[in-house]
Amino acid sequence: MSRSQALLLFLVLVVGGGLTIGYLTLPGEWYAGLVKPSFNPPNWIFAPVWTVLYILIAIAGWRVWDRELTAPQQFWWAQLVLNFLWSPAFFGFQKMGLALAVIVLLLVAIVGFISVTWNSERVSALLFVPYLLWVAFATLLNASLWTLNAG
């Protein structure tokens, strides 16, 4: 497989997978009825932000795959699985506590990826920084929604 074919495969997997899961687990009426914190962003912001982040995630994954970096690949796959589990946990099963556990583990995997790539593949580490910031914000949002709507 050529490098460009592999990059395309990573893009299709991550962007296609992420958008498909997002489509299958649209927020719906349950989410609309939740008490939201004051910093809750408008719903329209999520799709464009996640699309950009998924492109960055795919490129970073392709770069560590292309360089055959084992530990970064393990963290990369772990974060992708956790990323793809969050929406079904939160929106599909409507389990905000479970989703919070998933997103905290996702944060750990993202930090792990950045840590193990920082010296060997700095570009990939930097590609994950916006992702880290957004998921940290999403973790705060998830925790706030869970707290505001507990019981």
CATH topology value: Ferritin
- Count of separate DSSP helical elements: 7
Report the CATH superfamily. TspO/MBR protein
| Rg calculated over all Cα atoms | 16 Å
Strand content: under 5%
> In percent, how helical is the residue content?
over 70%
Main sheet summary = none
Apparent shape = globular
CATH architecture: Up-down Bundle
Instruction: Tell me, rounded to a whole number, the average pLDDT.
Output: 96
CATH class: Mainly Alpha
How many discrete domains?
1
Count every beta strand, where a strand is a DSSP E run of 2 or more residues. 0
List the topology elements:
Blueprint: H1 3-24, H2 28-32, H3 46-66, H4 70-92, H5 96-117, H6 122-127, H7 129-148
Q: Could you explain the architecture of this structure?
A:
This protein has 151 residues and is mainly α. The protein has one domain: Up-down Bundle (Ferritin), CATH 1.20.1260. The chain has helices spanning 3-24, 28-32, 46-66, 70-92, 96-117, 122-127, 129-148. Helix 1 (3-24) runs parallel beside helix 4 (70-92) and helix 3 packs antiparallel against helix 4. It starts with a helix and ends with a helix. 30% of the residues are buried. The mean pLDDT is 96. It is a multi-pass membrane protein. Belongs to the TspO/BZRP family. It is found in: Membrane.
Short summary:
The protein has about 150 residues and is mainly alpha-helical. The protein has helices at about 5-25, 30, 45-65, 70-90, 95-115, 120-125, 130-150.
